[in-house]
Amino acid sequence: MDIAAVEDRHSSGVYTKRGVTIVRGEGALLWDEQGKEYIDCVGGQGAANLGHANAAVAAAMATQAQRLISCPEIFHNDRRSELMERLTMLAGLPRVFLCNSGTEAVEAAFKFSRVATGRTEIVAAMRGFHGRTMGALSATWNKAYREPFMPLVPGFRHVPYNNLGALDQAVTADTSAVILEIVQGEGGVFPGTREYLQGAQTVCRRSGALLIIDEVQTAFGRTGKMFAFQHYDLQPDLVCVAKSIAGGLPMGALLIGEAVGVLPGHIHGSTFGGNPLACATSLAALDEIERLELPRRAAENGEYFLANLRQIDTPVVREVRGLGLLVGIELRRKAAPFLQVLMEDGVLALTAGMNVIRFLPPLVITREQLDRVTGSVAHVLAQPVV
Ligand SMILES: Cc1ncc(COP(=O)(O)O)c(C=O)c1O
Question: Are residue 332 and residue 203 in the same domain, yes or no?
Answer without folding.
Answer: no
